[in-house]
Amino acid sequence: MLAFDDLGIRFGGNQAVQGVTGSIRPGVITAIIGPNGAGKSTFFNLLSGFYKPTSGKITFEGQDITKLPTHEVVALGVARTFQTTTIYKELSVLENAVLGHRVRTTSGLWDALLGTGRERREGRASEAAAMEALRRVGLETQAHTLAGSLTQEAQKRVSIALALATNPKVLLLDEPAAGINPEETVGLTRTIRELAAGGLTVVLIEHKMSMIMTLADHIMVLHHGQKIAEGTPQQVSRDPAVVEAYLGGHAAPHVREELKADLLGSAEVEGQHA
Ligand SMILES: Nc1ncnc2c1ncn2[C@@H]1O[C@H](COP(=O)(O)OP(=O)(O)OP(=O)(O)O)[C@@H](O)[C@H]1O
Fold first, then answer.
1. C-beta of 34 in contact with ligand 1 (< 6 A)
2. ipTM of the prediction
3. Which of 11, 101, 145, 251 is most buried by its number of CB atoms within 10 A?
4. Is the CB of 41 under 6 A from ligand 1?
5. Whose CA is nearest to atom 17 of ligand 1?
6. Residue 24: pLDDT over 60
7. pLDDT given at position 242
8. Atom 1 of ligand 1, residue of closest alpha carbon
9. Which of helix, strand or coil describes residue 36?
10. 36-42 long-range contacts, CB within 8 A, separation 24+
11. Which residues touch 37 (CB under 8 Å, ≥6 apart)?
12. DSSP secondary structure letters along 41-87
């Protein structure tokens, strides 16, 4: 559904992503993993239209979206969250999600200023879509709470709701579990699984290997900007190129430790998060 062919981007002399070909299959949870600096966030920025590639092509449902501006990519059904939580802390949870929905609506500033019928209709539709997005992430009872007063984990959920309010077909999550504790990670994993079960195609970047190993149907591994492996969690974790990429000295110590546990087939990790 979302396909990329020979995708690459260069920043000055640094080829951050290079020759990446593949596709995101509908209805499955795909994880993008790789050591620090492997090009994962850059790859997301390419898929979501934030960066324009210096080579290659991206298509969504058969349509070439390589050169489309971000808002048009969003309108077609590709939404994303960011590594650092980007929400409006001084607004309520509901107001945040409404803003997410307004990205897609058609009324312009003129309608908003004049309070036209279309603007009022769209306002009501935005609120309904926003409430539905909050329900999907389990925040409907906190709709009127100030977003900035929520826990880090709930703020992560708000940022997911913001993306969901645009009614995407594909949701790109950039490190959704960063900075939250293991218990909250289990809860967030459950929510992501429910979103996928509801028909949403989910792609996520994540460093928490135990989460990836239990959540992902398919894993794509990037290293030095290139795709070095892909397959099921079991296939990827046994792939010698992946082991070498992680244990070859490029990964942060905590990533090395987590991955080592998974690569060595730690039943303990599986048991904790199953
Ligand atoms: N806007 C930019 N300008 C210049 N270089 C960049 C830019 N964005 C990323 N890079 C470089 O591209 C490479 C890949 O970075 P990227 O952030 O995509 O890696 P990553 O796999 O997401 O890393 P991490 O896991 O640490 O978040 C790095 O060498 C980085 O310095």
1. yes
2. 0.95
3. 101
4. yes
5. 41
6. yes
7. 87
8. 11
9. coil
10. 36/250, 36/251, 36/252, 36/255, 37/250, 38/222, 38/223, 38/224, 38/225, 38/245, 39/222, 39/224, 39/225, 39/226, 40/205, 40/222, 41/83, 41/174, 41/205, 42/9, 42/16, 42/17, 42/225
11. 250
12. HHHHHHHTTSS--SEEEEEETTEE-TT--HHHHHHHTEEE--SS---
Q: Taking the complete model, does pTM exceed 0.90, yes or no?
A: no
The maximal CA–CA distance of the chain, rounded, in angstroms, is 64
Q: 42 alpha carbon to ligand 1 midpoint, in Å?
A: 6
Taking a C-beta distance cutoff of 8 angstroms, is the pair 161, 134 a contact?
yes
DSSP 25: P
pLDDT digits (tens, 9 = 90+) for 225-253: 999 999 999 899 888 888 888 777 555 66
Q: Give ∠ CA 145-146-149 in degrees, rounded to 5.
A: 105
Answer whether 219 contacts ligand 1 (Cβ < 6 A).
no
